[in-house]
Task: inverse folding
């Protein structure tokens, strides 16, 4: 029950290159604002891990397997977001190049949860 009933929880930081994790029962129950989390490849969750996580349900459905699959690829189509999430290993020059390389900058700067790269950056601990 790690974050059970943390309705204001928006971000959980899991390092992008960490080992797969298994999330226990009810770990995020009633975390209705949870949106900013990326899971490593191979991660798994119990069927009732994300009970009543409204934002995750709207985006990925109510099944834990579909939520985990979505969170594993959370920033696949949003490279600027990914760099901001992983800001401790991103240089300003890399970020600038990534933004310049976007074909449609406006489309690529707002993700499926309505978050922009600054939202992602400033919801992480110790933003650079």
Result:
């Amino acid at each position: 029950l790690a974050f059970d009933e943390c309705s204001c929880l928006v971000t959980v930081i899991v390092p992008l290159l960490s080992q797969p994790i298994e999330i226990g029962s009810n770990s995020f129950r009633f975390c209705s604002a949870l949106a900013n989390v990326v899971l490593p490849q191979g991660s798994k969750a119990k069927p009732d891990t994300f009970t009543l996580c409204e934002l995750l349900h709207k985006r990925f459905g109510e099944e834990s397997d579909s939520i985990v699959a979505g969170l594993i690829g959370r920033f696949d189509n949003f490279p600027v977001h990914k760099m901001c999430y992983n800001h401790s290993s991103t240089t300003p020059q890399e970020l600038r190049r990534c933004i310049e390389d976007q074909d449609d900058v406006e489309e690529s700067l707002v993700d499926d949860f309505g978050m922009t790269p600054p939202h992602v950056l400033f919801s992480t601990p110790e933003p650079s």
The chain is about 35% helix and 5% strand. Strands lie at 22-23, 44-45.
